[in-house]
Amino acid sequence: MTDIDSSVSPPAALAERDDAITIDELRLATRNHGMPLEVLDLDVTPPGLHYVLVHYDIPLVDPATWTLEVDGHVDTPLSLTAADLDTLPAASARVTLECAGNGRARTSPRPLSQPWLDEAVGTASWSGVRLDAILERAGVLPGAVDVVFTGADHGVERGVEQDYQRALSVEEIDRGEAFLATSMNGVPLPPQHGAPLRLVVPGWYGMAHVKWLTRITVLDHAFDGFQNATAYRIKTDPDDPGVPVTRIEPRALIRPPGFPDFQTRTRVVDAGPVTLSGRAWSGHAPIERVEVSTDDGTTWSDAEVEPAGTDPYAWRRWTARWDAEPGRTVLRVRATDASGRSQPLEQQWNRQAMANSHAQAVPVLVRG
Amino acid sequence: MTDIDSSVSPPAALAERDDAITIDELRLATRNHGMPLEVLDLDVTPPGLHYVLVHYDIPLVDPATWTLEVDGHVDTPLSLTAADLDTLPAASARVTLECAGNGRARTSPRPLSQPWLDEAVGTASWSGVRLDAILERAGVLPGAVDVVFTGADHGVERGVEQDYQRALSVEEIDRGEAFLATSMNGVPLPPQHGAPLRLVVPGWYGMAHVKWLTRITVLDHAFDGFQNATAYRIKTDPDDPGVPVTRIEPRALIRPPGFPDFQTRTRVVDAGPVTLSGRAWSGHAPIERVEVSTDDGTTWSDAEVEPAGTDPYAWRRWTARWDAEPGRTVLRVRATDASGRSQPLEQQWNRQAMANSHAQAVPVLVRG
């Protein structure tokens, strides 16, 4: 058996130059895609506009032969078909998903991975079945610690061949928020969002929402798989075990005003009164405050934030008035949630650029 | 009025280094997206997997207030609503669309623009109404030369502020192939594919298929707008007027076999018999031959190509057998159409990297 060596599957590394995106990063960027920020105008993001991050290939799963296995530290292992899912109690939520690597390409030095700027986000209405109902039917035994979710996507990453797997703790599942989705925005899941079944963990970064689910395994010990123990960690150096990436840090984004230049995406705005708008969200606690700066962070004023709706993990719209005067400027925005978490204005660097929520900057030319 | 100067909207330029993608290019790559090549398994590409290239912002058009104006060198200018479209004769086709800039990021020196590798393609079933029926109703006057299609998307590009506009000649329209689409794959157009109405010009590169149509204008002279006269041209230097980009050059793509590494996307395949497959298409003439090389172009053998279907401008599936032996290799594929056009193995460089159809290369590790 030929080893999958580091020429095929290299170790984690940092970019040599801030302004030189590598071909490896480009290969990821042409496959995966962000949400074009003008789509912040929509409450619910359609497929093709909602961000997508896929580690390996998108598996095209045949729902007619697909099964979900439930095994491990349970009383009664299960093998559920798509028809079996229809007999289970329903669950649904409108949820803002964000990639844990959002903002990575704006950090310095930049870790080599999917090079997101600000756009790895989207909000969808997910619906499906209750996770606790499935676990109750299988009968989780005393002493359960972690629950591992396995997807049908297979690949190699930093030399480790794997099916994509992530675990959640039994405590987290007992909060009763995580569920299994069979549909997105009222229609069956599209292939790139995990058809026929994905996990949804409201409030958590995207890596937790395992797509193309094939297996749920209850463990009586902590899971030490690659995506929990190595990949999605906040580390300061390669040997640092780090701390796990979990819930989404607060973030606000501006719907870029005016119109763009094709190449630089700089915005052109006519002078005069402008209504700025955007969305804000947090996986920790409700958004409490959104502040906007129209002078690149020198002064700030409060935006108006729409009241919280029925879905605590869906973004909320904000608006602010701006009297735009001719010249160049940079718009910025930052959110604060009820837990006291806020967005830093500068990067908080970590080795894999995870959960880096430093405030967006939108360069604008105001013309008189 | 403040000029939109070259710091906001720079002139066309070439990259300094082949291996250093700029931040401007990355901004485009995180918005626009290609088709993940494993989706070559599907005959019809769903939204979110079909490639998307949007020059400016995606306009969110309200179909309730939207109208299509038909004016210019006509007897009776029209203003059509969405309901009016329902009274017109229907048209539909399954069509492979490809961006004229596909392959750009594999050319050297690389023009700074959307940095596609091989993936700017997709095949959808488009349906809507006949274009000739609308033009007949308006009554095109004698002496008509070009027909201009205007979209709702507005921006600035190389210093030229514009609504996106492209013209087709009256001769091209008289072929009877171009039509106006209101739906994609059986459902209303998604926002990013031109809702509520787009032009479809089967066989042509994507720039011709104007999205978010608001106006059709008949001219008694040749159109000299930016996207026809400047942008989509095959030029050898910046001052060369060049020749227009029109129909799609033949291309075949391989569905990458095995599984990928996350970062390098190198494929890992187990030794033994492998069925390679993919798709091939041309906008000029039916595909006549697909050849595959499993030794980086040293030797070639013919693939089996599925018979032509009823849609002359939809891709066709091909398959080939490969006895994979352990080690590193590069797979390549090239298509030839009935007009005698074929894919070069090396780039045929031009100043904007348009219509560059040089053959794909898929690096593979075969393990024993």
TrEMBL record, chains A, B:
Keywords: Metal-binding, Molybdenum, Oxidoreductase. SUPFAM superfamilies: E set domains, Oxidoreductase molybdopterin-binding domain. Residues 55-226 form the Oxidoreductase molybdopterin-binding domain. Its cofactor is Mo-molybdopterin. Residues 271-357 form the Moybdenum cofactor oxidoreductase dimerisation domain. CDD domains: SO_family_Moco_dimer. Pfam families: Mo-co_dimer, Oxidored_molyb. GO terms for molecular function: heme binding; molybdenum ion binding; molybdopterin cofactor binding; sulfite oxidase activity. Gene3D superfamilies: 2.60.40.650, Oxidoreductase, molybdopterin-binding domain. GO terms for biological process: sulfur compound metabolic process. This is Molybdenum-dependent oxidoreductase-like protein.
